[in-house]
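Re-run with default settings, no changes from the original entry. Doing this only to confirm the output is reproducible before filing.
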Amino acid sequence: MVWRVCVFLVTALQSFWLQAETVSGAAASPGTGLVYKEPFNSGAISQLALGLVVVIGLIFTLAWLLRRYSNLPGQNKRLQIIAALPLSAREKVVLVQAGDQQLLLGVAPGQVNLLASYDEPLIEVGEKGDFAVKLQQALSRVKPQ
């Protein structure tokens, strides 16, 4: 459907350009037979604008396709961030799914510390909820060492 609209627009603009070239006053130089065309006529400007729109549309389309269908190395379904909770401007707590385990990590500038490891999931992958409440419940279950 989108392609049909694009083809229609290109065809319509081509017919507009052809009309603009005949109306723009292309005149032959006397004695030489060369045709002089005005460089900045409406046909040239509309062709430039359409080309710019097509290129920008192509860039956005390719970026969307790359994000949607990319299987880049390093994107592993077995290792993913489940939730994150900022503690301050530079520190946060992150819950990471690593295989069958979930790891609670403390992240600060220049270092990452393992806070707790869970064999049974603290939060199910894809589950939506309040991470702070569930983290507090999980930490209250952990016995102090």
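The first strand starts at residue 27 and ends at 28. Residues 10 and 50 are 8 Å apart (CA to CA).
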